[in-house]
Specification:
Layout: H1 3-8, H2 15-34, H3 43-57, E1 63-71, E2 79-85, E3 88-96, H4 97-102, H5 105-129, H6 142-147, H7 149-165, H8 167-171, H9 176-186, H10 189-196, H11 198-214, H12 220-227
Parallel strand pairs: 1-3
Antiparallel strand pairs: 2-3
Helix pairs in contact: 2-3, 2-5, 5-7, 10-11
């Protein structure tokens, strides 16, 4: 594994910062949207949080442009992308009206924090590895998309965030079937991989297991069960 790959495999502690961003900047907007109000989010409100996170992991020179909008398009994710170059990164936050209306408070928080975790991982990886945006034509091939090193690392951080918020449930996993159910529910794109490329899914599942093992994050009951054999 070369130096660039090692950098991309780095794991960041984003949970607390992502929670601060949600509670301090995004939740007030969500509450007003629930009440039917149209609100404007200032990019300056979130930049101090982002700068604090990024400076914790890299001293690279960068500039981040943030775009916020409320939209009627249900096809858009809450946080659509982080793109550009390491020197000029663009993050776009789409607050989808139908999702805000139909999901409860905890579901909205979970979905937005999941997206923030994914995209912030991209931003830090892009700065540390001096790599451009991970968005490529591979997006249309589910297996190649999740296999992309930058995407894989971002999805791994989604899993890590899930583990932190669901420790008891995670540690009670005792079988590969239970592990697979959780993995598919956390990394939504894996369902498309399983459907279109079963062998590719098995390869990705193994890679996630290996990464979890290296970082001592495997479910405790699963480890106990394996040790018994």
């Amino acid at each position: 594994m070369n130096t660039r790959e090692l950098l991309i495999e780095a794991t960041y502690d984003l949970g607390h910062s992502v929670d601060q961003i949600y509670r301090g900047v995004i939740e007030p907007v969500v509450i007003q949207m629930k009440a039917g109000k149209r609100v404007k989010v200032q990019a300056a409100d979130i930049k101090p949080y982002l700068n604090k996170i990024i400076e914790k992991y890299t001293k690279a020179d960068y500039d981040i442009d943030l775009y916020f909008r409320q939209t009627e398009k249900p096809s858009l994710e809450f946080l659509s992308h982080a793109s550009g170059t390491p020197a000029q990164i663009i993050m776009e936050l789409n607050l989808v009206k139908t999702k805000i209306k139909n999901l409860n408070k905890m579901e909205i928080k979970r979905e937005i924090e999941k997206s923030l975790t994914h995209e912030l991982t991209h931003v830090i990886d892009m700065l540390k590895s001096k790599n451009k945006s991970p968005i490529t034509k591979d997006y249309y091939d589910p297996y190649k998309y999740v296999s992309n090193k930058l995407e894989f690392n971002a999805f791994f951080h989604e899993i890590k965030n899930y583990i932190k918020s669901n420790k008891k449930k995670w540690n009670k996993i005792r079988s590969m079937e239970e592990f697979r159910d959780i993995l598919l529910s956390v990394v939504a794109n894996l369902a498309d991989v399983l459907k279109t490329n079963p062998n590719g899914y098995k390869n990705l599942e193994r890679k996630f297991l290996e990464r979890l093992a290296r970082e001592n994050l495997l479910p405790k009951d699963m480890i106990t069960k394996f040790d018994a054999y």
